[in-house]
Amino acid sequence: VTREAGGAVTLLVGAITLRLALTGDFKRYVRPGMGPLLVAAGVVLVGVGLAVVVQSMRRRPARSDAGSHDHAAHESPDDHEPERVGWLVLAPVLAVLLVAPPALGAFAVDRVSRVRVTTGELFQPLAAEAEPHPMSLLEFMQRAADRDGASLSTTTIELTGFVAGEGPSGFDLARYSIACCAADAAVAVVAVVPESRIGLVPDRDEWVRVIGTYESGSEAPTIRAVSIEVVPPPDDPYE
Amino acid sequence: MDVGRGRRLRPGLGTLAALVLGAVVLGRLGRRYLAQAAVENWTTIFVAIAFQALPFLVLGVVVSGAITAFVPPDLLPRLLPKRPALAVPVAAGAGVVLPGCECGSVPIAGRLMARGVVPAAALAFLLAAPAINPVVLVSTAVAFPGQPEMVGARFLASLTTAVVVGLVWVRRGHEDLVERAVRRHEHTGPPWQVFIATAQHDLLHAGGFLVIGAAAAATLQTVVPRSVTDRLAEHGLASVLVLALFAVLLSICSEADAFVAAGLTQFSLTARLAFLVVGPMVDVKLIALQSGTFGPRFAVRFAPLTFVTAVAVSVVVGGWLL
Question: Residue A53: in which H helix or E strand, if any?
Answer without folding.
Answer: helix A35-59
